[in-house]
Amino acid sequence: MKKAASIFGGVLAILLLVSMPVFADEPAGEIVSGQASVVATQVATAAAAAPTVDTGDTSWILISSALVMLMTPGLALFYGGMVRTKNVLGTIMQSFVALGVITIQWVLYGYSLAFGPDVHHVVGNLDWIGLRGVGLEPYAAYAATIPHQAFMVFQMMFAVITPALITGAIAERFKFKTYLVFLILWATLVYDPMAHWVWGIGGWIRNLGALDFAGGLVVHISSGVAALAATLAVGKRKGYGEEPMPPHNLTMTLLGAALLWFGWFGFNGGSAVASGSLATSAFVVTHISTAAAALSWMIVEWSHRGNPTVLGAASGAVAGLVAITPASGFVGPVSAIIIGGAAGVACYFAINLKSKFGYDDSLDVVGVHGVGGTLGALATGLFASKAINAAGVDGLFFGNPSLLITQAMSVGAAWLYSFVMTFIILKVLDWTMGLRVSEEHEVDGLDQSQHGETGYNY
To answer: For position 457, what pLDDT does the model report?
Structure first.
C-alpha cells in the first residue's frame, strides 16, 4: 500500500509537470461542446450584467444531479444481476463504493483538475483544491445562472459513474483493495484530464471544435476503452469458455436498466446547464434513441438467435442511451431514431466479437460503452444541426463535413489515451498490489472472500 500511495503522489506531480501546449490558445470558433459550456445567449447576457442565480435553472440542475447519482446504484443492480450468485455483493459494492471514493477525490482536487484554470490545454490547475473559491455564486464561464457548487456537484456524479462502468469488464475476479486504489488513480490520470480536454475552458479538444454534449468521449469511450485494457491486463475468469456463467438474476438487471434509463434524463437533459428548450430537446431525443435501440437489438437478436431476450432488450436500451449521449444536445427526433437503431445493431454484433478475439469482457462494457460511445461521437459529426442548438455546428448531413473529421480525431485521441494510461495504471498496480484474487477466492466468490458475507441466505 505504501508503494501504491507513493506511485499515486508521483503520477499526480508528473501529470502537472509534463503538460505542454498541444494546440493554439484560441478556440476554433464559438462552439458549445456540451454540459461544460453555456448557451451563447447566456454568455452574452452574463457579459452585460453580473451573473445572477435563476431558481428554475438551479432546481433543474439539482434534480438532474440527483438523477445522475441514482444511475450508479442502478448500474450496481444492472451489473449485479448479470454475475453469478457468489459474486453479486462484490459486484454491487464496486459501483456503490465509487460514490464515496470519487466524491472525496472530486472535492479535494478532482474538480480543480477537470474544470480549474487551464494548464497548457491539458489539465486544470489546483486553484480550486478543496473547493476553494467554488462558492454559491455563478461562475459564468461554465454556467451563468446557477451556483458554481451546483455545477460542481452535477459534474461530480459523472465522475462517480464513469470508473464504475469499467468494473463490468473485470467482474468476478478483481481484488477490492486494489480496486480502491485503481479508482483514485484512474479518476486522477484519465477522467479528470479528459474532462478538461473536452469540457474545460482551454481544453485542447474543446478548442479543436469537437462536440460532446454529455459524455460520449469523457464517459463512455474513456470507460469502454479502459475496460478493454483492463480485460487484457487482468485476464480471463477461471473456467471462462469452459463452463456456463449465466446471469443469476435478470429481474435485478432489468430493474437496473430501468433506473439507468430514468437517470439518463438528468444525465443528458441536465447537460444543457439550464432548464428550457435545449434541455427539453436533449430529454426527448434521449428517450427516442433508447427506445429505438432496445427494439433494434431485440429484433436482430431474435433473427440471429431465435429468441428476443430480456437481457438483450435491457442491453439494447443501454446501448441507445450511450450512443445518443454525445449528440443529445445537437440532433432532432428522426436523427435520434437512426442513431439508436444503429447502436442496437452495432453493439449487439460487437459483444459477439469478444469470443472471436478471446478476451473476457464479463458484462460487455467494451461492446456497449466503447462501441456505442464511438458510434455516437461519430454520428454527432453526421447529424448535428444548428437548428437544434444554434451554439453548435452543423454536421456532414447539414453541409459541414469538417465536423465529422474533427469528431474522428477526438475519438482517436480518447481511445489512445484511455487505453494506454489504463494499461499502465493496472500494470503498476499488478506489480505492487496484485490485480486478481487468488484462485481459491475466485472459486469461493468475491462475496465471501472480499467482504465476508453473502447476497442470499437460503
So the answer is: 87
